[in-house]
């Protein structure tokens, strides 16, 4: 009910359809269905209805609840069954539209007389085309810098992954190197004697390094916004080129740069990114972002490209005040993921990124599983966070660490999916 100029009236609009359906805690007879509530200006919610179908039959009501919480535990499900689930919001004004369908398969039915225990882990993927991975070496207790045990001693087996942490570099990359963008912006802004891309490349590298050392984590300690940090870096870049422009000239140049990185044309999303995220949604995996990029990437870039609806958490160094490989980044990711997967252990999170030190080593040191993503071809590992501004790291460099990093390096998210499929199905049984 609302008060209007001519009296009280009723807003009879039904609620909007829920979105972002995801399944967690999937077993062979139950799961937790989560969604995002999209309220309209109508009457308050009075509950939700869950509808389901199997095998292409008509949707039928599976259950309903008078709770207005955006999740529900579904029990009594058939094992090893593919369900298509939809959610409908209910209010006094009427029933809302049905949500988009979530497709999820329940776990396999365990036999009454199981065979002798057999350890089958992610390491045994010799039958997967294009992936040659040996048995995973056994892991003992891993001591973190916080004086606690990250992982308990366990056998030669990775536990089932329940959450996937992604670095932004797994999803997208800059279309152009930063120096090329700066050079084009300088021309557009009609700066006198605009610096060339060749001048800007070392100048930008030095400016960014100085900014990271003086104002780490995008000015976290100074309380800076992303724009303030990048403005300082851009001004230092021009100074490193021996240029000194007026405030008005610099503002004209920098606005053009900042607008570029606020547009879709600045980024290229990888073709396998959204299919992989769709698959994780169907499998009921909780997914989030853990990155050293600034907050603007999470608040603007990911929503602009349609990635945000797949994510349950967003961890950035600018907000945490630490940068990967610092383990606090992964602790924060674990804490956020635990909101969606109660009781989640760190070793049940898989982190995927393109930096050997920050993503692969950092995640493992914090007690997470990790895979290294190499989109640069057969012989190099490209750090796409730096958008081509730093030389690639060769596998020969990686081998110096003594880790079998090349073994755990995959070419794309399709191969990550294959690893997850094997790991989810082939457990201790």
UniProtKB/TrEMBL annotation:
Domain Fibronectin type-III: 17-109
PROSITE patterns: FN3
Keyword Hydrolase found: yes
Protein keywords: Hydrolase
Any one GO MF annotation of this record: hydrolase activity
Pfam families, sorted: fn3 (PF00041), HAD_2 (PF13419)
InterPro entries, per database record: FN3_dom, FN3_sf, HAD-like_sf, HAD-SF_hydro_IA_REG-2-like_cap, HAD_2, HAD_sf, Ig-like_fold
Domain of life: Eukaryota
Name of this chain's protein: Haloacid dehalogenase-like hydrolase domain-containing protein 3
Species annotation: Symbiodinium microadriaticum
Gene: hdhd3
């Amino acid at each position: 009910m609302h008060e209007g100029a001519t009296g009280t009236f009723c807003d009879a609009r039904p609620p909007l359809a829920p979105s972002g359906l995801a399944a967690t805690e999937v077993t062979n007879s139950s799961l937790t269905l989560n969604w995002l509530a999209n309220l309209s200006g109508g009457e308050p919610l009075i509950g939700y209805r869950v509808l389901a179908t199997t095998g292409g039959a008509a949707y039928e009501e599976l259950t309903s609840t008078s709770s207005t919480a955006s999740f529900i535990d579904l029990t009594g499900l058939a094992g090893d069954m593919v369900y298509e689930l939809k959610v409908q919001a209910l209010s006094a004004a009427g029933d809302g539209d049905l949500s988009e369908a979530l497709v999820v398969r329940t776990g396999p039915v365990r036999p009454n007389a199981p065979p002798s225990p057999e350890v089958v882990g992610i390491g045994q993927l010799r039958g997967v085309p294009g992936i040659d991975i040996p048995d995973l070496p056994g892991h003992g207790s891993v001591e973190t810098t916080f004086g606690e045990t990250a992982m308990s001693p366990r056998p030669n087996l990775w536990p089932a992954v329940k959450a996937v942490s992604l670095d932004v570099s797994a999803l997208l990359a800059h279309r152009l190197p930063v120096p090329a963008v700066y050079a084009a912006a300088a021309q557009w802004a009609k700066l006198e004697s605009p610096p060339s891309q060749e001048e800007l490349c070392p100048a930008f590298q030095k400016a960014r390094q100085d900014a990271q050392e003086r104002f780490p984590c995008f000015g976290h300690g100074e309380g800076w916004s992303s724009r303030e940090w990048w403005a300082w870096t851009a001004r230092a870049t021009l100074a490193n080129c021996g240029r000194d422009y007026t405030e008005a000239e610099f503002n004209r140049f920098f606005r053009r740069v900042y607008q570029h990185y606020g547009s879709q044309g600045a980024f290229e999303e990888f073709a396998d990114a959204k299919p992989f995220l769709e698959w994780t949604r169907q499998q009921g995996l909780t997914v989030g972002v853990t990155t050293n990029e600034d907050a603007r990437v999470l608040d603007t870039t990911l929503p602009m490209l349609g990635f945000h609806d797949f994510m349950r958490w967003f961890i950035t160094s600018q907000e945490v005040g630490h940068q990967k490989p610092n383990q606090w980044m992964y602790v924060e990711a674990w804490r956020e993921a635990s909101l969606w997967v109660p009781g989640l252990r760190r070793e049940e999170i898989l982190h995927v990124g393109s930096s050997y030190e920050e993503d692969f080593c950092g995640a493992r040191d914090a007690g997470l599983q990790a895979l290294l993503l190499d989109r640069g071809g057969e012989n190099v590992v490209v750090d796409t966070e730096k958008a081509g501004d730093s030389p690639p790291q060769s596998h020969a460099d990686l081998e110096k660490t003594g880790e079998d990093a090349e073994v755990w390096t995959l070419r794309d998210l399709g191969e990550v999916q294959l690893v997850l499929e094997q790991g989810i199905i082939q457990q201790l049984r």
